[in-house]
Amino acid sequence: MSGNIQAQSQESAGDDKIVARNIRRVYTIKQKGDGGLSEFEAIKQLDLTVKQGEFLVIVGPSGCGKSTFLDMVAGLAKPSSGEIFIDGRLITGPDLDRGIVLQGYALFPWRTVRKNVEFGLEVKKVPPKERREISQKYIELVGLKNFEERYPHELSGGMKQRVAIARALAYDPEVLLMDEPFAAVDAQTRETLQEELLRIWEKTKKTIIFVTHGIDEAVFLGDRVAVMTANPGTIKEVVDINLPRPRDGIRSSAEFGWIRHKIWQLLQNDESAGAGGPVAGQSIAEAISSSAAL
Ligand SMILES: Nc1ncnc2c1ncn2[C@@H]1O[C@H](COP(=O)(O)OP(=O)(O)OP(=O)(O)O)[C@@H](O)[C@H]1O
């Protein structure tokens, strides 16, 4: 068992992989003027369960607390109150059982593609020969064969994002936490990466929590979509995506349109706008969709 997970906080997990209970997250903000401190409640009463092997997507207006929640699951931040469990064990810090893919790539610029992908394996002290075999497997899985010796500045945005995914997968985490991983790439590359991610997920059976602004992206990828509201952030509804897999060509189906519309309405009906919410005359759903270039 990892040093970051407290043995005394065990509880029966069943096929629940991640359980978040009554999460509240408060930030202390410095006031303009007198410099006094005040509290800002970013997340309140958030409950969410993610099943083993599930692909769960979170959507919500800007500033509703999606990244804050993902950071807490990653163990990079702590809830002000409430608890998050993985396999029934309390999360108290980051660990190699959870791989993180953030927007903006965050690759090591001084490392080649291969060396970036091998990073987690080096941390795990995997011997060099095995490291090489594993990194090659994941580089090929994300379609980057023949780019092993390139540096990040020699790659396109989509290729960098693939390296980030290969790096997260290579050390075999049970859970992948993805925060708007495809936000910075063009629409066509985004669709290709979505399809590749589904292919990898179907092969590896990882549990995935994926944060996005894109309703289409959420419906295309998810088993379920958790819709968040802001001020303070909480889960408004979790929508089952009962679409068949594989989902190639599903975007043009009537069922896809119905589910998309349902999520759109859930966001539309949300009276509370996030801090970076819609501009005048634009609904939350419109703001989310346009920002994701659907
Ligand atoms: N370190 C911090 N200090 C103070 N407030 C913070 C801090 N980090 C986040 N917040 C606030 O908490 C709220 C939630 O932020 P968070 O980044 O989790 O939202 P989000 O849903 O991921 O937004 P976006 O979709 O724009 O990325 C926002 O109102 C934000 O201003």
UniProtKB/TrEMBL annotation:
Q: What are the alphabetically sorted keywords of the record?
A: ATP-binding, Nucleotide-binding, Transport
What organism does the UniProt record list as the source? Answer: Propionispora hippei DSM 15287
Give start-end of the signal peptide.
none
Checking InterPro entries in the record gives:
AAA+_ATPase (IPR003593), ABC_transporter-like_ATP-bd (IPR003439), ABC_transporter-like_CS (IPR017871), ABC_transporter_ATP-bind (IPR050166), P-loop_NTPase (IPR027417)
State the organism's lineage. Answer: Bacteria, Bacillati, Bacillota, Negativicutes, Selenomonadales
Q: Name one GO molecular function term.
A: ATP binding
Q: What is this protein called?
A: NitT/TauT family transport system ATP-binding protein
Q: Ranges for the ABC transporter domain?
A: 18-255
Segments spanning the bilayer are none
Top-level taxon in the UniProt lineage: Bacteria
